[in-house]
Amino acid sequence: xxxxxEITLPSKIGSVEEVATAAEEFVASRGLGDEMAxxxxxxxxxxxxxxxxxxxxxxxSKNVEVTLADTGDAIKVxxxxxxxxxxxxxxxxxxxxxxxLCTNGRGILFMRSFMDEVEWANAxxxxxxxKMSKVKK
Amino acid sequence: MSDITITERQAGDVTIVDLExxxxxxxxxxxxxxxxxxxxxxxxxxxxxxxxxxGYIDSSGIGELVSSFTAVKKxxxxxxxxxxxxxxxxxxxxxxxxxVFDVYDDEGEALSSYN
Lengths: 137, 115
Prior knowledge:
The structure holds two protein chains of two kinds. By secondary structure, chain A is of the alpha+beta class. Helices cover 35% and strands 26% of the residues of chain A. Chain A has helices spanning 13-29, 33-55, 107-114, and strands at residues 4-10, 63-70, 74-80, 117-122, 128-135. A five-stranded antiparallel β-sheet of chain A has the order 1-2-3-5-4, with helices on one face. In chain A, strand 2 and strand 3 form a beta hairpin. In chain A, helix 2 (33-55) runs antiparallel to helix 3 (107-114). In chain B, strands 1-2-3-4-5 form a five-stranded mixed β-sheet. The A-B interface holds A 13-14, 16-17, 38, 42, 45-46, 49, 94-95, 100-104, 106-107, 109-110, 113 and B 3, 24-26, 58-60, 62-64, 66-67, 69-70, 87, 91, 94-97, 99-100.
């Protein structure tokens, strides 16, 4: 079984389910258990949804590139879009009472809740890349 | 094939909406939104969402629960949640939405709470 899985998808809402299922299967196939599979599935789903909607703005001529890697002690994920980027720190805290009833803006919270590390960087050649990792238990 | 099945039951003036499957970005969230808006259009504004059969929900689905809650409230009604799975309960805790929704484990108790 390969230790790395690379997936390139168009910026369509349907891509989110496709890549999340592949991520869950990648983790499950490595015998890492349901909890790890669920966490990676959720984080990938939210990162790809952000890339499709907010990064590439549903422009299906722009791809989203996802890499999953088993590094031995952790599962590492990168999700890269080709958009103009955004200020992660500028996203309001959805648990703030003022924002509790907002209908969106919880994806980053979920990514941070389910993964051990989440960071954003400008990708070489443009676009935004989110890198996430979760240590195996 | 849809990832979600939505059925409705009437208990007095409360509409129980049984959800089965995934409430995620795209079809699942849209199906829930369509159902709630239709019920409101029919004048049904006491709604109990039974989430026992929901195996997966993402941030879009959580957003749709919030959107449904506020849409029903705006129409003078009440939307409550029934039978959260552990995963959904955890997500509502992370998002602090357990402080917003009325949540019940028992259907009879939930129905009585509308009186």
